[in-house]
Amino acid sequence: MQQDDFDRGVKNRRAVLGDAWVDRSLGNANAFNAEFQSLITRYAWNDIWGRPGLDQTTRRLLVLGMTMGLARWEEFELHCKAAIRGGVPLDKIKETLMQGAIYCGVPAANTAFKITMDILREERRVPAPQPLAGSARVAIHHTFSEPQLRVAVQGRGAPVVLSHALGLSLGMWDAFATRLADTHEVARYDHRGHGGSAVPAGPYTLDQLVDDAARLIREWGRGPVVFIGLSMGGMVGQGLAIRHPDLVKGLVLANTTAKYPEAAGAMWLQRIAAVEAGGVAAVADAVVERYLSPAFRAEQPEAARALREQLLRSDPKGYVASCQAVMAVDWLDALPSVRCPTLVIAGAQDVGATPAMAQAIVERIPGAQLQVFEEASHLSVAEVPEVFAHTVEKFVARV
To answer: What pTM did the predictor assign?
Structure first.
């Protein structure tokens, strides 16, 4: 059947607001308001929502921002509920409301957050607690020494430092840090060239990244610490235990290597060239595929999307400079000097830091333990968070 503008508008209206709302609005039309319903269906929902210039998620978020600014709370609630039910990521809705707090005012943002929370309760999607009282609050600092590093500290107890993977930030550890902070004081930081830390000119060396971690711990004044590093963070952890043993009382090396095979050099040079030519966007999809297993990407598409967006926020110069440090990692011969308790974690599906590479580390560090997660690829703390946390907590409790 040939559709007219009204039919096309109804289709868009249903896609955005859901069948129940549209059926009720159209079914309840009467001689007084039918022409109005027809008008908004043809012009708002076909001519505007049907335009190709913006994707549907962006349009939804714009409507939230504008209805928030105009205090049109009935419309805000309608579109917010539809956005949540329609799969718009909560982090994007949150960022829209945060932006609104500046441009629409705090009272408007307060109302918008309250309405959104009421909807999340109705939908049984209440976010995890993140209290701001006492030791539960995450305090954000920067190192006094340069290049300045952004540091987040939370919790009370024995000190633990978390060190993230290439292209990410201290946010990689959010959930794990919150859990560990119940029993430990946790510091996590952005490497130079990443997140909220300074981006000095490259190339960087692993010795520089190791010295960054050492000065952070010394400024914190809580050493020796249990140092937990994943991927690039694990390379830093190895160097820290080798070059600054007085600062480390326990070591967790997750999804990392002490040395790449010679053939890997060409891959790293290709990645560097791609980022220099096209920014991090040129390699983001490939990195997501290496960091997360196919099964996880299929089951958790929102997590995969969030990882990609985090990578796209990386500073290209900082990323390239860090790649030049990572590709040159070579701690194997020095590992026998490590004397602190060490746990090495590998993902069975990790092609970048294989279980064999993890085994090579274990064989050289006296008394080191190896744990292989069968379902994980590279970003094990995200792929198998419960197993990762339980394994690390058991180890840390013994250190």
So the answer is: 0.82
